[in-house]
Specification:
This protein is mainly α. It has helices spanning 2-16, 30-33, 51-71, 73-76, 78-94, 101-129, 137-155, 161-203, 206-209, 211-229, 233-285.
Length: 327
């Protein structure tokens, strides 16, 4: 056990004293950063007594290590990550058959902390780039405070892993609250826009003229509502934005084609009127009698098909004005 303690002291003392964020992270996309609030983990090693539990402890530490890598900790907290990695390798190299669950639990907690802190830093950067702090300044300020405290605790070297993880998780969750509040507003505003565009499509009878396209547009709003109910406001926002754009294009296209059709009808009516006028004049000058003449339509001939829409409003897809969970 003295050997283990010595290894920890050497590893953490050398690197944590100068521990700061290293190179800036690359953008791995929102999906890797914004994945819901992080639950605090219990890193106690009590009641871990047999060999299978020891194997589980090592496996858990390895899993947390990979999660930290995936979160970008090797770049954002490279020095601290290397120190914790060295401590893990030191325990694995011992192979002395003794129970090292306590040490492994602390190592796991440190990897968890580095993962949470890395996600917090990336989310903070996104919030700053998109100017989201103004939508929830209180939580943003709390996140700034918590992340600063985490960095200070990490530099202290002697801080237990569980304490580091608690503070890093706090920072991430504060930033996450800012992100959620901002995108809930964006989604709510964009949904209103999508419904307005839908009404424009309803007005030109797009639900009749282009029934399948109209239905596809409406389904985008419905999908957005589902995403919103799953606490995924950014995904909902993207669905609503797509729906608004699609309904807008559909309404304009149907309106343009309806205008073209109306123009053709007016031109046809004008031709019929001109033909009737000519026929009336000819009948006065040179009566033809009651016999039909080739090339001249009968009086009751239908030149244009009449719309047979019984009630287009019945085809409108009804979508509620508000979505569950919008407030």
């Amino acid at each position: 056990m003295k050997k283990i303690i010595l290894l920890f002291c050497v590893a953490f003392a050398l690197v944590f004293a100068s521990c700061k964020s290293t190179t800036q992270e690359t953008d791995n996309g929102a999906a890797s950063l914004v994945d819901g609030q992080i639950e605090g983990t219990d890193n106690s090693s009590e009641n871990q007594e047999d060999a299978s539990q020891a194997a589980n402890a090592l496996e858990a530490a390895e899993a947390s290590r990979q999660a930290a890598i995936d979160a970008g900790a090797k770049d954002l907290y490279g020095t601290a990550f290397a120190a914790n990695d060295a401590a893990l390798e030191a325990i694995k190299a011992l192979n002395d058959g003794k129970n090292h669950d306590a040490e492994l639990a602390d190592i796991k907690a440190r990897f968890d902390a580095l993962a949470a802190a890395s996600k917090a830093k990336k989310l903070k950067e996104r919030i700053d780039n998109e100017d989201l702090a103004k939508y929830d300044q209180a939580d943003y300020d709390a996140g700034e405070k918590a992340l600063g405290e985490f960095d200070a605790l990490l530099a202290a070297a002697v801080t237990p892993g569980a304490a580091l993880n608690k503070k890093a998780t706090e920072a991430y969750n504060d930033y996450y609250a800012v992100y959620i509040k901002a995108y809930k507003k964006f989604a709510s505003d964009e949904r209103k826009n999508a419904l307005a565009k839908k009404k424009e499509a309803d007005a030109v009878k797009a639900q009749i003229a282009r029934k399948d396209d109209y239905k596809a547009c409406a389904e985008k709003i419905i999908k957005g509502d589902q995403q919103f109910s799953f606490s995924k406001p950014e995904e909902a926002y993207n669905c609503y934005k797509d729906a608004a754009s699609s309904f807008d294009a559909l309404a304009k296209d149907v309106a343009a084609k309806r205008a073209e059709a109306q123009k053709a009808i007016e031109e046809a009516k004008a031709k019929v009127a001109a033909s009737n006028e000519y026929a009336a004049k000819a009948d006065v000058e040179k009566p033809l009698g009651d016999e039909p003449v080739a090339g001249i339509e009968a009086e009751d001939t239908v030149l244009l098909e009449v719309d047979k829409f019984e009630n287009p409003d019945k085809e409108i897809i009804i979508i509620e004005e508000s979505v569950q969970g919008a407030n």
